[in-house]
Amino acid sequence: MFCLIDMKKFQITGITTVKEGDNLNLTCSVESFPPSLILWSKLGSVTNLHNDTGSAKLAIQNVTTEDSGQYICTATHLDTTMTSYVNVTVTYKRKPQIIGNTTIREGDVLNLTCSVESFPPSLVMWSKPTSNPSRHNETYTDAHNDTGSATLVIPNVTAEQSGQYICTATHLDTTMTSYVNVTVTYTRRPWIIGNTTVKEGDVLNLTCNVESVPPSLVVWSKLGSNTNLHSDTGSAKLAVLNVTTEDSGQYICTAKYMNTTLKDKFNITVIYKRKPQIIGNTTVKEGDVLNLTCSVESFPPSLIMWKKLNSTTILQNRTYTVLTSDTGSATVFIQNVTTEHSGQYICTATHLDTTMTSYVNVAVTYTRKPQITGNTSIKEGDDLNLTCSVESFPPSLIMWSKLTSVTNLHNDTGSATLVIPNGTAEDSGQYICTAKYMSNTLKEEVHVTVIYKRKPQIIGTTTVKKGDVLNLTCSAESFPPALIMWKKRSSNTNLLSGNYTDLHNGTGSSTLVIHNVTAEYSGQYVCTAKYLDKAITIHASVTVTWFSETQDGSGCVLQSEVLTCVCISEGFPLPTIKWPLLKNHTEYSVITMVSKHTVNSTVSVTVNKHSNSTVECVSNNGNGENRENLLIHQNLPEKHEQSSNLRQGYMKVIIGILAAVVLSAIVCCFTKNWYRKNQKTSKNSDETLEMEKHQDDKLQQCQESSKEAREDKDGVC
């Protein structure tokens, strides 16, 4: 049997908007067969409110705001479930609430807020009886509780704004009213009458009045003092007899009315004057600054004028105000004074209609600056002769000294001559001439330079390994600093040229740095120090040591119990080759050949039943050692009984080969010497290197020829 639920017949009926306190009635029905199971529930709740078959009625009596929300009707038919939703709204209202301060002082801000909790939000209006229409008319909705709110703000309230205010809230077709009484309290500010400026010695009279009912308590005080000068009600009079400068300042009238305190301030100025005062040094040295200040403590500030006796010129005319003491001040400032500035100076102070005068005598003392004569630059071995003189009366005491020394070298009156015979480099430096005149001390300094030179010195390691860094420094102690140049003998190129000054001892210095040196860098290097019109040269012999592994061509061959081995090694110094095999033998032959930096060692030894497959060759030149295991190649004879004859034949062949190699080396050496003798002297070191390389190639060809001969004879690879 098949049943289909018709969606058009799945419906919810009832009123979804109800007032708070009314009843909510909703019916959910589904037409189906068999009848569907109907359940009512509320969103956010796991409790089923009601269930029935075919039709279910949801009834809630005396609804509240908590009953608002979404309700769900669920219909279950066989294995099919259908859902329908409905939103229920509960309308409500609360009594208007007024918050805010209803008693405020005149001049403050009246701020009252009337709020009504309701749904939908109420329209809130403010009004005042016997006044204009509502001061505020607008609906406010609080997002948290859906209430309307309106705020009445009156800035700077006055006494006329006291009275009753009405808040009216209109919710749907209902109107609610709430009342509030506002009280504005006030007092009038104090005011002060009297003269704010009095002369020193007069009477100060001030009166402070405050309009209020009941009368306010009026108190007089002075800023910076905790003492009450006078107090009264409604009005208070302050009288100060025979005022002084200390009575100047700010006076405060304080009015206390109920719990309110009001203040008014009054600044009092006492007019006064003092005798002019002159400060400054009245005795100055010639060339210094004359700086005199004339000041008069007074109010208002006095007009100060400077004048020199027997002169009609006013030196300075200006009013100066010092904020701390309200005094007038004027400064006469004369730079680089001379003896003509000596004399009497007059300071005149004009205060209102009064003139005051003060005098000062100025004395200018003088001495002349020390003068130094003589040659300040001398050669080493010459005499230093310097004279210091000072023009003064009475004569000054002259003393010679050297900087960093506490010893006086020479002293005299009026003039002193310093003589240092046979000057040395140590006599260079700063010399000081000190002139003492009465209580004054004058100094003059001079720098003495002794020209000298020393023999250049080379520091650094002259023997370096191949691949290391050659670092040589040539320095020449002299003044002025020497020009240092590096050069390699048989080369016209300056390796390094520069003028270097050592800050510690004033010497020239130049450093030669060559990275990754090779054997070609061995030789003599020349350092030339150019000093003024002279040049001094020193030499350094550089040796590059190197060592290489066993060279190609080394190996061993065993034939008919005769073992022949060749070991070739290179290096500088020339390496030595040793055969550990020979320790166990008493009969053997060793032939050693040398070509430039190459050593060729050939050993022949008779062995019986030699079981090893290699022979060790050890080469060493002091910079390194190399141990090479040479592989033994075996050549078996065709007939064993002929081994003795063949052994002798091989020995003859080997001796012939070695003789040919030696002869080739001798021919190469003679050829090389002949070639060098016939070289032109203008050829550079590069051509020499090319020639040497050519000769090495010939020697190598000779060795290869010998090797081929051995291969043809003995079958050695």
CATH classification class of the largest domain: Mainly Beta
Q: What is the helical fraction, as a range of percent?
A: under 10%
Structural class: mainly beta
The CATH H-level superfamily of the largest domain is Immunoglobulins
Total E-strand runs: 55
- What is the CA-CA span between the terminal residues? 108 Å
Largest sheet: 12 strands, mixed
Mean pLDDT: 80
Poorly predicted spans: 1-8, 133-146, 317-326, 496-506, 638-653, 677-717
User: How many DSSP H or I helices?
Assistant: 2
> Approximately what portion of the residues adopt beta-strand conformation?
over 45%
Rg over CA atoms, rounded to whole Å, is 62 Å
* Domain module count: 7
Region (Disordered): 681-717
Protein name: Ig-like domain-containing protein
Keywords: Disulfide bond, Glycoprotein, Immunoglobulin domain, Membrane, Transmembrane, Transmembrane helix
Biased composition (Basic and acidic residues): 683-717
What would you note in describing this structure?
This protein is mostly beta strands and 717 residues long. It has seven domains: 7-92, Immunoglobulin-like; 94-185, Immunoglobulin-like (Sandwich); 191-271, Sandwich (Immunoglobulin-like); 280-365, Immunoglobulins (Immunoglobulin-like), CATH 2.60.40; 371-451, Sandwich (Immunoglobulin-like), CATH 2.60.40; 454-543, Sandwich (Immunoglobulin-like); 548-714, Immunoglobulins (Immunoglobulin-like). Helix content is 9%, strand content 54%. The strands form nine sheets. Strands 42, 44, 45, 47, 48, 49, 50, 51, 52, 53, 54 and 55 form a twelve-stranded mixed sheet that branches. Strands 2, 4, 5, 7, 8, 9, 11 and 14 form an eight-stranded mixed sheet that branches. Strands 18, 20, 21, 23, 24, 25, 27 and 30 form an eight-stranded mixed sheet that branches. Helix 1 runs antiparallel to helix 2 (685-714). The two termini are 108 Å apart. The relative contact order is 0.04. It comes from Astatotilapia calliptera. It is a single-pass type I membrane protein. Residues 683-717 have a biased composition (Basic and acidic residues). Keywords: Disulfide bond, Glycoprotein, Immunoglobulin domain, Membrane, Transmembrane, Transmembrane helix.
